[in-house]
Amino acid sequence: MSARTKARKAAVDLLFAADLRGKEPSLADLELLGRESRDYTRALVEGVREHRNQIDSLIHTYAEDWDKDRLPAVDRNILRIAIYELLWGSLDHSVAMSEAVNLAESLSTDKSAKFINGLLARISSLAPTLPR
């Protein structure tokens, strides 16, 4: 597993835990990660935090028949990270989408993976027109 894949998983864990507590994510546990994973995890969590309102608005707008609050917390946070990477990251969109789908397959359900893939494909296709 690559350092960035580990970082995404750690970011999902931190954002998920914060979601359940109704608080901001704690970066205190990052010292347990390797340096590269720690730095990228921090960048993801801080990026999601900085752009959270816009990210959540995109989820609400493009997740047909799904309210962001009805989404399972793990799916919501996988989407937050992936949308952050799509719009503000330097990754190829297919990589960000593939990583998100892989996380959903390992942490959530097959239906979640399909839903996440479809929503990210829609946002990816609209990315050039979305405000940043």
How is this structure best summarized?
This protein is mainly alpha-helical and 132 residues long. It has one domain: N-utilizing Substance Protein B Homolog, Chain A (Orthogonal Bundle), CATH 1.10.940.
Describe the protein:
The protein has 132 residues and is mostly helical. The protein has one domain (3-129): N-utilizing Substance Protein B Homolog, Chain A (Orthogonal Bundle). It contains five helices and no strands. It is globular, with a radius of gyration of 14 Å.
Give the proportion of residues in helices: over 70%
User: Which oligomeric state applies?
Assistant: single chain
Number of strands: 0
Strand content: under 5%
Q: Number of helix segments?
A: 5
- For the record, the CATH class is Mainly Alpha
CATH homologous superfamily identity: NusB-like
Task: Note the main attributes of this structure.
N-utilizing Substance Protein B Homolog, Chain A; mainly alpha; 132 residues; globular
Q: How would you summarize the topology of this molecule?
A:
Elements: H1 3-21, H2 35-62, H3 73-88, H4 93-107, H5 110-126
